[in-house]
Write a structure and sequence with these properties.
349 residues; alpha/beta; Nucleotidyltransferase, domain 5; Hexokinase, domain 1; 2 domains; five-stranded mixed sheet; 37% helix; 24% strand; transferase; ATPase_NBD; ATP-binding; Glucokinase
């Protein structure tokens, strides 16, 4: 893929120097549920993914060793650079992985692999860079916004956790930066929201946005509606949740089976995602665009396109004109962060 060709509605980043020499890179997306690793090549500005593999994150205690083993399986493509997007704040080349209770450092990876050019970046920063590799087919537009919209951009990504990132516009180029906005406070608006917050306070004490806008959060909303509000959980659904991915089964119960408790769960989830998206856009003045990434939005795309998401997104204090000008897209590519880590690696020395 030619990474220097940008779509108008996607961010414009600095492009890597075009060189005739082919180099190999390792890119990674290390999340709370899954870890994607890839070997890529880049020559003359053309970035290609040669091999990629998915792993269950909880099955691996030592991620530096996992990267070493992955590289060893392709001795014909020795990497000169490694970039891994990680779910947590990176400080001085180290990260405590928020939802895995493990740590990783650039030094660990250098020692395990022998590769000296190594970078850890936040996974939402990686997703932001990944936007540079997308095409129109990878986006679902919820709201077109203002024609030729320009300015800062924002990404919000619910999955195992809730990631957020900003993309600063300097007038010529965009510059991604990570945040930990998912760990800011959940802001209830209605009596039902307050009741949910109290339910979650009993469970977690501090209720962040991530506690309601994530896969585990979706499950907690469902259990609140069942245990506190008395909504019925059909036996077949209970069995499916017990034996599978709770968030996936609940969203499927709303989209495919019209189950009342699932419908209400997703109604609240969509509203909370919309409100937090609006908050993020206003805090970053993200007039260039809002991108909904992570594992959940593509799965519930039809629920986000009914008008309910946009309705609640627009429920703001005197900033409706600004909010309505912002284009809103769902990122329908589950490897955006992996591609973004690869893109970042092309910029490394």
């Amino acid at each position: 893929m030619q990474i220097s060709e940008m779509q108008q509605y996607l961010p414009h980043f600095i492009t890597p120097e075009a060189k005739n020499e082919k180099i190999y890179l390792v890119a990674g997306d290390l999340g709370g549920t899954k870890t994607n690793l890839a070997i890529c090549s880049v020559v003359n500005g053309e970035l290609d993914m040669i091999r990629d593999e998915k792993f269950a994150s909880k099955d691996h205690e030592n991620f530096a060793e996992l990267i070493r083993e992955f590289i060893a399986e392709s001795p014909e493509t020795p990497p000169q650079r490694i970039c891994i997007g990680v779910a947590g704040p990176v400080v001085d080349g180290e990260v405590d992985l928020t939802n895995l209770s493990r740590s990783l450092s650039e030094a660990d990876i250098r020692k395990a692999t022998g590769v000296q050019s190594v970078a850890l970046i936040n996974d939402l920063e990686a997703t932001a860079y990944g936007l540079a590799t997308l095409s129109a087919s990878h986006l679902t537009t919820i709201h077109t916004g203002e024609k030729n919209a320009a300015g800062n951009m924002a990404i919000i990504a619910p999955g195992t956790g809730l990631g957020m990132a900003g993309i600063y516009w300097d007038g010529k180029l965009h510059h991604p930066f990570p945040t930990e906005g998912g760990h800011t406070d959940f802001a209830p608006r209605t009596d039902l929201d307050i009741l949910l917050m109290r339910y979650l306070q009993d469970k977690y004490e501090i209720v962040s946005a991530e506690r309601v806008i994530s896969g585990p959060g979706l499950k907690d909303i469902f259990e609140f509606l069942r245990d506190v509000k008395g909504l019925e959980e059909p036996y077949a659904l209970r069995t499916a949740i017990a034996n599978g991915d709770a968030a996936a089964e609940i969203s499927k119960g709303a989209i495919e089976a019209d189950i009342p408790i699932c419908n209400k769960t997703m109604e609240l989830f969509v509203r909370y995602l919309a409100r937090e998206s609006s908050n993020l856009v206003l805090k970053l003045k993200a007039t260039g665009g809002l991108f909904l990434g992570g594992g959940i939005p593509p799965r519930i795309s039809q629920l986000l396109q009914t008008g309910e998401f946009y309705h609640h997104y627009m429920q703001s204090d005197r900033m409706a004109e600004l909010l309505s000008s912002v284009p809103i897209h769902i990122v329908a590519n589950d490897k955006a962060a992996l591609w973004g880590a690869a893109y970042y690696a092309t910029l490394m020395k």
